[in-house]
Fold this protein.
Amino acid sequence: MYKHVSLRRRQAGGRTTWQLLGPDGLPIAAFAAFAESLRNSPPNTRESYCRHLAEFFNYLIEVMAYHGQGQPLTKLQLADALEAYGEYLLLGTDASHPIAQAVAVSLPPGVNATSSLIPKKAALRRFLKLSETVRKELAELATVYNNRIVVAETSLLPGLGQKRQLQPQEVKAMRAHSMLAGVVSGGPQLIECVVLGDATEIVDYDESRAFPYDKVMDLIDAMPTERDKSIYSLLAASGCRTHEGLQTLLSDDVDVEEGTVHLVDPKTRPGHPSYRALSPSQRESLAWKGRTTDLTLLIEPFASVFFESLQRYLEREYIAHGRHDFLFQFLKGQQRGLPYFLSAPSSRLDVFQGACGRVGVSLPRGTGPHSLRHMYGTYVLNYFPRSNGDYGLPVPIVQQLLGHSDVKSTLKYARFDKDLRKLEIQHANRVLFRNGTPKKLLELKLEALEAQMAKVRSQIVQEGNTRG
């Protein structure tokens, strides 16, 4: 998979960890320390971060060859290599940085979307911060052992592991978005410096990643089994992440009579019999991305479809073996009856894409079942009918329904729909022009004032009717 290094999965202390072998076939100690630092992270995070760092080490060894005979890099050369890494991943041989361009010739980076750079840089930042922590600890040891330990006196990158004073606008933003920041004496003052930051991390939301709302019913109907119909109708109805839905427990989380489904973090019920029935490696596969509530709002018509397909699934395909209570199971083969959350994401993606092909839906490359979550976010933020006659739920409520700890994530998943923007612009154009002639500014001001006065009169009448 990599030109210079080999990434190996291995078991240590009942957990899955990763080992990276260098060109000489020996483990790379720095990578081992990084993998160990991830021991308390979810399995998917450990795997993705280790793969991202392995890709960087592969790049770095190629950079060493570029500078000549694979000799260790100087501090300046290493800083240049870090600076070029983003361009290398994104632009390849079209990069303007000479290192990125040269390395891409002998080591093509493959296709990388702008959004894919964010997790790759996050993994690299974590590694760099860990390296700086180790450097500081060694520096302290050097003072104890009379400098017999040779340690770099300064950080590799400016700002690494340091904090800076917050700007006034940043303090204001933090107070607006954080309950804690508002009660801290003196307010927030310091923030950790960000390294490897650049404009590529500002990623616009692509509305095409949301599954077409009017095609969801066709997608569900095209699923090959009642189990799959239940899974994808649940994803569409709740907007939950795939792993959240697949880890649902039948008796504890699903109430058919009430028509509700709860999404529960496995860490909140560690001794549950269904979890104890799993092997250590299987329990390790239980994942959670930080959803802060088990609350769900199941939207129609997908909610009704879910409970209908669920009934058929339980009658025709579900195996009530009593070993565990996971709702979704493998249906055949040696794994029959095992929890379906243990299945490979690639196999589930094949099922999803096969159904998409049968109903004529083409999604952007790399888009899978998560597109139903985008659809849900767009719908509840813009179109969900409310009792007061308005449409669309407030952002804080959508944030809670999607299980986001940060409102910024909600705004990325559920941006204001482009069709609504188009309608607003069309309406504005109709207001601005009269018989093909633009209205004068004073005319527009007068119309705006008259509209405000009409609104106030309506409120006065309503208040009078209420008192009467």
